[in-house]
Amino acid sequence: MSQKGDFGAVRKDIAKLLHQPEYDDGSAGPVLVRLAWHSCGTYDSETDTGGSNGAGMRYEQEGGDPANAGLQHARVFLEPVKEKHAWITYSDLWTLAGVVAIKEMGGPDIPWQGGRTDYVGETKLPPRGRLPDAAQGSDHLRFIFNRMGFSDQEIVALSGAHSLGRCHADRSGFDGPWVNNPTRFSNQYYILLLSLQWRKKKLPSGIEQFTNYDEDSETALMMLPTDMALRNDRAFLPFVELYARNKERFFADFSKVFEKLSELGIVRDADGNITNVDVEFGGYISAPKKPAEPGAPKKNTDDKVGPSEAEPLQKENSRFREKSKL
Ligand code: HEM
């Protein structure tokens, strides 16, 4: 247990858990970045609802949203950190984990401030349907991201996070990584989006994605329809080109836009304290830890998504490893 507010100690423990040889490409980093983004990406500027302040994915309505399929892995990875630093709120932990993971995977420093609180009930949960649908095009991207308050350039910069991780057929229905080294933060996503031949491919599930198969290395890479929209839209394209040729510019812009993402819906006073917390309770409200063991009693825990998220994941991971050996 660290001193309340010692985010430095939490950062160190997040960094330590990134190496996960049994999981995906050997790193928890990409799925932690996705967890951070999805915890923020429900923000609606018009109604000033959603966003990271609250950690709504602890509840079925948000955690069980099909758009969040797979993020239980990220939440379970972080449980030992919550156990050790019980004072931290889930909303701070999930956003900080994304920032730490990006840095550890070779990405930029992203300014991050704590102070978020966890919802104490379900009344403020955002409705489902606010996160992007990868099967759509540019109009949809603008609709989703303008609602959060992002410009065309910011949409393109944020999408560069797809240099990390992969799609999973059993989560989103899409399949495969965007780049050859998916645990290294880079501008490869833009370079490959522009330079490779992308062919539409119908997956067994009926879902369509874009695929490039390299005969020599026998590796397949993928792009989502929304990724291709960045290349095919006249207003998005110049920013894809900019970030493909200028890695430093991408890192600088990504850092700013990810910070903006993590602050959506948050109002701070001059000292950095968040002022729009749940007024009924006030203060830094941290939800109690969820159960660590499969089937642990619900008493004194906060696992509202299911009796335990951990057990089915263990099976899923071993299935993934079996598949990747083939
Ligand atoms: C532009 C709209 C976006 C769409 C439609 C989209 C869609 C998706 C989809 C379908 C997946 C695969 C999920 C799975 O099957 O496991 C994915 C993964 C991922 N996304 Fe996005 N995404 C978008 C924007 C973003 C943003 C803004 C970020 C972060 C800044 C991000 C970070 C990631 C990461 C790191 C992964 C890999 C997760 C893993 O390896 O488990 N995405 N995204």
Architecture overview:
The chain is mostly helical and 326 residues long. The protein folds into two domains: 7-131 and 258-315, Peroxidase, domain 1 (Orthogonal Bundle); 138-257, Peroxidase, domain 2 (Orthogonal Bundle), CATH 1.10.420. It contains twelve helices and five strands. It has helices at residues 7-17, 29-40, 60-63, 71-84, 90-104, 138-148, 152-159, 188-195, 225-232, 237-245, 247-262, 310-325, and strands at residues 166-167, 176-177, 199-202, 208-214, 219-223. The chain has a three-stranded antiparallel sheet. The chain has a two-stranded antiparallel ribbon with strand order 1-2. A hairpin with a 4-residue loop joins strand 4 and strand 5. Helix 10 crosses helix 11. 40% of the residues are buried. Bound molecules: protoporphyrin IX containing FE (HEM). Protoporphyrin IX containing FE (HEM) is lined by residues 30-31, 33-34, 37, 70, 132, 134, 141, 158-159, 161-162, 164-168, 171-172, 174, 224, 226. Protoporphyrin IX containing FE binds at residues 30-31, 33-34, 37, 70, 132, 134, 141, 158-159, 161-162, 164-168, 171-172, 174, 224, 226.
